[in-house]
Specification:
- The chain has 222 residues and is mainly alpha-helical.
- It has one domain.
- Helices cover 66% and strands 0% of the residues.
- The longest helix has 36 residues.
- The termini are far apart.
Length: 222
């Protein structure tokens, strides 16, 4: 007699071996995409550290006020750019995992759009943030960015003189820009990987946190 359960209703479909394999393949592919995107900033950081060693004053990394202000400026600028470019829909947890999610992107779509540094120019801050009038939060962020910018430019002149101070200020600004992009990249990567991997992202975030915490102790040291 056709039918399924004890009540005579239709049988609940069970996953077949092929569907399980297809699911594992899809998860593995998503994990490989995320691993590639995670590896890119790691390579970029290593290259930046290697290149900057020949440009930085020999004691640049030993002055935490200068490097700390530059990094704080970069993080704040990155958050301001994210806030200006994307509206609440991009960060709504209820819309994160649905098929219409703004983070439902292929690897190449992620790299060409969310991770594209050309999409985060100064025009992002000048134009209407996220398509609406700038609110108090955005104005506070921009005030903090302006204050940190002034402090980051002035700080090197407390420790060096002349051309060395100017070079340290320029390199501090370059560090701030680099950190701003890493901040944007990290936020977008977190949201994209959350969509792709769901709870597996927590484990990925833990691994990345441990890695970058270790790298932070050695960054920009001669």
């Amino acid at each position: 007699m056709p039918g399924g359960g004890d009540g005579g209703g239709p049988a609940t479909p069970r996953p077949t071996a092929m569907s399980v394999i297809a699911g594992l393949v899809a998860l593995s592919r998503a994990a490989l995409d995320v691993a590639l995107v995670v590896a890119l900033p790691i390579v970029a950081v290593k290259l930046a550290v290697r290149i900057s060693r020949n440009l930085l004053p020999h004691d640049f990394s030993e002055v935490p006020l200068v490097t700390g202000l530059a990094k704080l400026l970069g993080v704040t600028l990155g958050i301001a750019l994210i806030y200006a470019r994307y509206d609440r829909r991009y960060f709504d947890p209820h819309a994160l995992f649905i098929p219409e999610s703004p983070w439902n992107l292929s690897l190449w779509q992620f790299l060409a759009d969310r991770a594209n540094p050309l999409n985060y120019g100064i025009g992002t801050l000048v134009d209407n943030p996220a398509g609406h009038v700038a609110n108090a939060t955005f104005l506070v962020l921009m005030s903090i960015v302006a204050a940190l910018l002034a402090a980051a430019v002035a700080a090197p002149f407390l420790f060096w003189r002349g051309a060395m101070a100017r070079r340290a200020a320029l390199l501090g600004l370059a560090l701030a820009v680099f950190v701003a992009y890493l901040t944007i990249y990290g936020i977008c990567l977190l949201l994209w990987s959350l969509y792709l991997l769901n709870f597996w992202t927590i484990a990925l975030a833990a691994v990345m946190f441990q890695y970058y915490r270790g790298r932070a102790k050695h960054a920009l040291r001669p």
